[in-house]
Amino acid sequence: MVADNFSRMARRSFMAGAGTTALVALAGCQSLPAFSLTEAIRRLLMLASMNALNRLMAPGGFWDNQLARLALPEMFGNRGGVAQAILTSAPVKLRLQRELNHVAESGARRAAPMIADTVRMIGIDNAEALVRGGPGAATAFLRSAMNGNLIEAMVPALGDGLRIASDPIVGQAIAALTGVDVTGVARSLSREADDAIWAEMGREEASIRANPQATNDPVLMGVFWVR
Length: 227
Hints:
Elements: H1 2-14, E1 23-24, E2 35-36, H2 37-57, H3 90-121, H4 127-132, H5 137-146, H6 149-163, H7 168-176, H8 182-210, H9 218-224
Antiparallel strand pairs: 1-2
Helix pairs in contact: 1-2, 1-3, 2-3, 2-8, 3-6, 3-8, 5-8, 6-8
């Protein structure tokens, strides 16, 4: 349901705000109208975030994705520590890691509308540079503009997810940590989820740039289709 709502919101946002900056006629695209490069960047970011987050919000979205899978946070005794007393075997550690990756899905669900709102509202003064930039240039711009706010926004959702985690190994591992509570674990997990979300979004942006025809979006095809 959240993923469907995010998808609908993203598609509506594609059409919002076009034409507010100078329009650029595209060489070799005489059959297409002139496009706003700012609108192209908004559509690129919205589609990249929608595709990336829909994958990560799905059951197993982090765990089943080798590139997005979160490592077991160091606080759980990767190099020795109190928590390692209960993490006595590789299967138990793997079980905890898998459950934390499932919890991270709630962080992605919290991130989705926040990213969509930012894409819709953010000022883009250097659209031409972003169009001509590297495969993840627009994603890097958006991440810098959000300035870590996504991490703080995800902490409460991840904290709730940790508290209601179905596997008791999560509660046991947190209880074994010295001087660290659920919020501390949630913050550490939020930082990892933040890195994974932006990396997945950057890969999706690169994919769209490489094959804009697959989007069936005339603006993205007109701006990024290299003939």
